[in-house]
Amino acid sequence: MAYELYYWDGIQGRGEFVRLALEEAGADYIDITRQSGRGRGTGAMFEIMESENEPHIPFAPPFLKDGDLIIPHVANILFYLGPKLGLAPENEGLRYVVNGLQLTVTDFVAEVHDTHHPIDMSLYYEDQKQEAKARSAAFIRDRIPKFLGYFERVLQQNPKGPDHIVGDALTYVDLSLFQVIEGLTYAFPKAMANRKAEYPALLALHDAVAKRPNIARYLKSSRRLGFSEEGIFRHYPPLDSEG
Predict the structure, then answer these.
(1) Which of 56, 74, 113, 133 maximizes the CB count within 10 A of its CB?
(2) CA angle at residue 199 from 162 to 145, to 5 degrees?
(3) What does each C-alpha distance from 214 to 21, 134, 182 come to in angstroms?
(4) What gap in Å lies between CA 147 and CA 76, rounded to an integer?
(5) Does 132 have pLDDT greater than 90?
């Protein structure tokens, strides 16, 4: 059976981290909310989330269905999929290392979101512009170098070399770091242009992932949604600076 991915229709968002893994592996999956028909569309996602009899309801998308099993949360989904898709180390201990790195990506993505929604998630960006500008300035100054510097060090200190974040083969965290660099470059082009030279291993990893055959095909396909001001990574010019 095909995996079923549930996420908001029309945006990359957090669902993209799961899509990249599925696409790299050539896995059979259905992006449920982007489909029409019975058991498809956004209504199908809410039917599960609002179910009164499903014993394991997810709090929010993305979540994945594999048969009757429902797996919520990006890092948890990737921890489950990684071994099945050949995107996790064979060594069980290293799988927890990879999971820890993905959880750090999760933390970083949450901070990216808070640059444009620093006060209240229920308010629009336009309702908190001044707070967003102050939050973004601190994010560019302190948090981008904190997180990217960390991932750069992990790559550089990998005993198997800096081509991958863990070991000598591609893992789902390599794919997630590609998406992080893509998203930051879209959201904060000035800041990233000014800082990219500080992270040569990360940039090399990004470029290598983009050239992988399945990923390259995906990036050119209609399945790859563009960045927009509805997702996690948003480009609001007043929030960008050279840092």
Answers:
(1) 74
(2) 125
(3) 10, 39, 17
(4) 21
(5) yes
Question: What's 43-86 look like in SS3?
Answer: HHHHHHHCCCCCCCCCCCCCEEEECCEEEECHHHHHHHHHHHHC
In angstroms, rounded to a whole number, what is the distance separating the alpha carbons of residues 198 and 1?
A: 44
Confidence at 219, pLDDT banded by 50, 70, 90: very high
**pLDDT for the residue numbered 208:** 98
Distance CA 46, CA 80 (A): 23
Contacts of 20 (CB under 8 A, 6+ apart): 172, 175, 176, 178, 179, 215, 218
The residues, ordered by sequence, that sit 6+ positions from 25 with a Cβ below 8 Å of its Cβ are 85, 86, 87, 214
Rounded Cα distance between 88 and 150, Å, is: 20
How confident is the model over 226-235, as a mean pLDDT? 96
Euclidean distance between the first and the last CA atom of the chain, given in angstroms as a whole number = 48
The pair of structure tokens assigned to 106 is 């999760």
